[in-house]
Structures are given as C-alpha cells and as structure tokens.
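User: These chains co-purify. Model them together.
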Amino acid sequence: MDPKPLVTLANVTKSFGPVQVIKGVSVSVYPGKVQVLLGENGAGKSTLIKMLAGVHQPDSGEIIMDGQAVSLPNTRTAEQHGIATIHQELNLVGTMSIAENVMLGRTPRKFGMVDRKELRRKAREALALIGLTIDVDTLVNELGIAQQQLVEIAKALSIHAKILILDEPTAALTRHETEHLFKVVEDLRNHGVGMLFISHHLDEIAEIGDSVTVLRDGEFVAEVPGSTPEDELVKLMVGRAIDEQFPRQKNSQPKASLILEVSKLGSKDKFKDISFTVKAGEIVGIAGLVGAGRTEVLRAIAGADKYDHGSVRIRNKPLQRGSVEAAIKAGIGHVPEDRKVQGLVLDASVNDNLGYATLQETSRFGLADFSGQKSRAESVAKTLRIRMHDIEQPIRSLSGGNQQKAVFGRWILAQSTLLLLDEPTRGVDVGAKVEIYELMNAITAAGGAIVMVSSELPEVLGMSDRILVMRDGEIAGELDAREATQDKVMTLAARDTDEDL
Amino acid sequence: MSTATIDASRRRFDVKRFLANNGALVGLLILCLGLFIATPDFLTGPNLLNIGIQVSTVAVLAFGMTFVIVAGGIDLSVGSVAALSAMVSSWLYVGSGVSGWIALIAGLVTGLLVGVVNGLVSAYGKLPSFIATLAMLSVARGLTLVISDGRPIKTAPEVSFLGGNLGPIPMPIIVLVASAIIASFLLNRTVLGRSMYAVGGNAEAARLSGLPVKRIVVIVFGLAGLFAALAGLLLAGRLDSAQPQAAAGYELDAIAAVVIGGASLAGGLGRISGTFVGALVLVVIRNGLNLLNVTSFWQQVVIGVVIALAVGIDVLRRKTRNA
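Assistant: Joint model of the two components:
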C-alpha cells in the first residue's frame, strides 16, 4: 500500500474559451517521490501545474490534500498549502542580494528597520537546506542560472514547501549543473518532499523519476514507472514511434570545399586562440560548460559582437568584423541562444519574423515586397511544417518548437549556407526536435554547413560530424564524433568538474 | 470561382473583431453621438472645421511620435522642437531677409536636424530616449527664447498660408490629411516602417537579423523632428507669428494621442489611423467641454481620466485575448 499522496489532482478539466486544454487528468504527488509530467508542448503540462500553483482553477474535478478537497484560488493560498513552483523564468530580483531574495516578503525587522543580521542568518539557513554555501550578500544578477535556480529552491523550502513543482529546471543547465541539481533533488526526496518534475530530456527521467504521467493533447495517456525505456516514452507522448532520435548519417568524408575558416580568434576575457575550419556538408558541434565561451565565439563569427584578434574567412574571403549585415551577405545565418530574447519579435506575425533578414534585399525603392514576402514565407512555413492557423498570427502564440523552426526559416528564406546554431533545440519537444535535426541534415546535404553549440551532450554526439570541446575560452580538444563519448567530452570540458559550482 | 469564394470568406467583415481592434474609434463615435445629442452647436460646419484645425497640430505631432513609440522610444522634445522650428523660420525671414519659401524649408530642416541629434544621442550615445529628449526639450525651448529674445516674430507669408484657407478648406486640414497619408505609407509600406516595428518589438532580434538598428533609430527621431517642425509651422501660420512659448506641453498630448490610438509604450505596436483617432478624441473632448461651458480646469481632469480609461481598457483587452 502506497503512503497517502500529498496532493492529488482528481479528474480535472480546464477550458479556455471554447478550447478544452485539460480533459479529465489525474495526477498524484507522493512524499519523497518524484512524479514526472511528460508531454509535448501544448499537451497541457503547464496548465496542470498552474492549477497546483493557484494560477488557474479547474473547471471540474478536485484538488485533494490530506483527503480533503481544497480550492487554490490564488498563488498565496497554494503557498500556504506548502506548494511551491520553480518556474522556467525565475522569480528573483536580480538587483537584490541572495539573502534579500530568499527572505523577500518576510524580511525580518527590528524596530521597523531591516534586521540585516537576522536576514543573513535565515538566508544562510535556507541555503544550507540544499547544501549551498555561497555568500548571501552576492547579488542574484552575478549568479549563473543554475545557482539562481538553487536559490529559488532554497527560498521555497524556507517557506516550508512540502510539494515542489520543477518546471523544466534543467533546460538551461549544463550536464554538470544538472547532476548537482539532481543531488539536491535526491536530498529533498530523503526529507520527504514530494516533487512534480517537468523535463524535455528523456534521459533524465530514468535517472530521477519514480513515476511518469504522460499527457497528450490535454488527455491522460498513461502512468508508467520511471524506468520505462525512452523510446517507449516517446511513443506514448507523440502517439507514434519515432524511428531515430538523432537521424544523422555521419559524414566521414565531407566535401572538400572550405566554407568557414576561423583563425586565432580572440576576444578579451571571453575566448582566445580559437582556430577551426568547417567544410561544406559538415556539422561541427561545440561542446563545453556554460561560460566556456561557446556562445561568444558563435556570436563573434555571426557579427553580433566584435572580437579583438584573429580573423574569420568565409569561402576564402575575409569577413568584416562585428557586422551582422556583412555576415548575412556572406551567407551566415545565426540562430541565437534565446529565441524569445534574441531571435523573435514576439508581437509581430510569423510572416514578419520569417522576413526580417530579407526585408532590405527584397525591397524595391525602399518599399517592402509584401506579396513576394508572404508567398516566400508561406512556402518556407510549409516546408518546415510550422504549425499555425495563419501566417499573420503573432508568433508569440506558437509553441516553442514552431517558434524555433521560424527562426530557422528566416535563414532558409535568406538562403544562408552557413548556419550558426546556439542551443537549437532548447525548450523544443521531441517531435519538433527530430524535425529540426532533419532540417539540419537537409541543409548539409544541400552543401551547407553548420556549427552547433549545444549543452545537450546526446545531441552534440548524435548530430555532429566533428566535436570541438571548449574550456575556459579555449578549444581544449577536437573529437571525431564517431569515436566521441560523453566521458571523453566531459574530460576535455572540465579540468576540475567541481569548479563551476 | 473557388478562389473568389475563399477570398470572400477571408475578408468577411468581422464586427466583433473590428470593435475589439478599434476601441478608440468606437469611443470617439460614442463621444460624438453624445455631444450631438447634448448640444446643437456640435454638429455644425464651422465647429467641425474648427475641430479639424485644432486636431491638425496635435495629430501631425503625434504622427511623428507614433514612429518613435513604435520603434520603442519616446520623444519628449516635440513641443519645443515645434516652437524652435517655427522660430528659426520667422527669425531667418525677418532677420536675414531670405525668401518665404526658404524660411519655410529652413523651419522643416531645423526640426529634422534636431530630431537627428536626438536619434544620434539615443542610438550612439546610448542615452535612453526619455533622457535624451528630455534634455532636448529644455535645449530647444531655450534656443527658441535665445533667438527670439522672448518675443514673438512675424512669420513669412508662405508659412502664414499654411494657417490660412485654400478655397473653403483650411490649409491645416489639407496638411493633416497629406501627412497622415505619408506617415501611414511610411509605416506600412516601406522597409523603414516595417523595421521600426521590429526594432520596437525586439531590438536585439532585429539587430541579429541584420537590420541597421542604430540607423533606423536616427531616422525615426529625425522624422519625429520633421513632423514636429511641420506642426510648429502650422501653429505659427495660424497666428501669423512664431511664439516663443508655442506648443509647450504638446508632447504630452501627442503621446496621449498615440497611446489612446492603441500603441504600446513598450514598442512594436501602433498605427497611424489609431493615432489620428486618438488625437481626435482629445480634441473633440476639449471642443465638446467648451461647447458645454465646462471650465478649462475641469477639462484637464476629464482628459486625464479619459487617457487612463482608454489605456486601461486596452490593457484589459490584450490580457483577455492572450489568456
């Protein structure tokens, strides 16, 4: 007999307008267990957790705690019931210290003034709960995402949360940071905290999950043990089998023509002595820890940032430094790290977003080529299978995977031949991931080349032909993808694996 | 045949959606209906022409402001720039005896240049546009006072013509319509206009897509200055003189018009038609309250409430749509 669940969503439904997004789903969270919610984007995971967080209320069905139906009309009530949510977008005030953030809303006072000593003590106590020892006076801005996340977890625990909802906590973490987080999760498990865990990384589920609830289109599909094999999970989630997670035919003999030649590239405090080449038809992966300088190198090549030393040549022609326009003219397309912040104009239409890179060159006498743009955009959207009602709908309303495909689409419209991809599948669900991989294959098959920065090692190993590993702003080594393993990459990436936390 | 039916169904007029997207227009119509019932003086030829003349200055200023707000900035200097441009024009005409046409063009160029300075300071000096143009508000007003020595100067006849009539139609209304068409064309049809939306919506994404963000910002402020100059000349033309304190505080009317018209101060949203309606709302309320003999003190209270209501409703509408 199982112990009693901490909380149960019993047969809940929820509609927004005419659309029913949750159709009778039941999930329970048990003390000391990690319940995984699995489903593609739009399957209803976030609506479910918002019900527990007090943001949405179910239309029918019940939320049961301690055998009693409760209502969670707002986030405050949810907190009072011991439910804390760690969102993907962290709720911390960057310009305040760790201590102030942890104690936000319950700042200890003395004679009406902030009791700084008590504030620090309590914050330290909270951090100690998860074995974190950093100076509590540090500003949150100065922390990496992984540490910010831990601060937020500490904050939740310090308000006596019994149920922790972790919404894609590993999406922005490196492998090493993820491992650290999992240690914390393990610890919390032993303390009897119940957790609801959302992740797109299937390999994490076996590692951390006790039980998996699979959702599809707002419906409950199955509840299976955490040890269920990955392809089985994918099948449940997508509703069909996906043949291969990484559909790359390893290219041992790339075409001879050189596309990109980076030599001795250096930028103060960011990276130095970066030299490598990419040939037509190749995918070169850049692995490394966050902060190793991968993104910075990519941005320097794309013209997004200036560099101090060295040179970049495209097809044997020197590329102007620090000019995105010149890079685009030379055939470079840059899919940045964070599509919402750097890639898309969220309020603008899919059509507009697809066309920004080609807006100027397709214009005549300064007039935008509306009809031409629309037909080009429609054809690209069709090729990339961007799912939408209408090409004029705001891109904000698309799922993450489809938004990402639109960023790719912009460069397909621009007929770019060298794509610089920074975390190309971050926050993208399994189905769309494979579509993006297939797109990468199509681009290289057509004689294009790709440089891909990714923190997901399976992706780097699965999709690259060659792998460059960066460490502390330098290239620590190069591996042939057919011989590379996670261990080999990690050994190169982290001299001292405990250094980055 | 079949394509025609598809087109027809796609273009079918959706009343609900139209109302939701044109809240300010609906408000304006209700306002006009109310005034029509409340006072017989409202719907008369002279009063409507009067409204047209009054709206011209605010609307022309606000068109320039629309560019800036769509591109994610704000321009607090337009009132001062309007005054400075008109003053430079009159000062050149009276002081150095250039021809009236030259004086008129010099006024426009003044506005353009001041706007470009705003843009340069904001784009390359990395000052927030709020601060850059707040500084310019003071500088331009100060320069106006310096060159005029604090006294009004007579305008060139060519400038006065802008404040006069062409046949039965007041010139300000003609200028208004022309600038509305030009502004709308710029914003909707040109690469520049489309780029403004991208820059305002997400400047970093625009930059990484190869758009020359800084150049666009400079042009946008230049345009705002140019439109401000035109508004200043309209105002001076009506009075036959450039006043040193002309258009003081008009930047707030212009911003209000743009915002009532549905633009977002966060950038990336806004239309010339909306701004035009927004300017009309402001002017019709003032006109109506005058006709109803409400004192100008209370008028300010009412206008403030209307701005808050208009934007509040808009925010609410967006929220429900996004949920």
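The first helix of chain B runs from residue 2 to 11.
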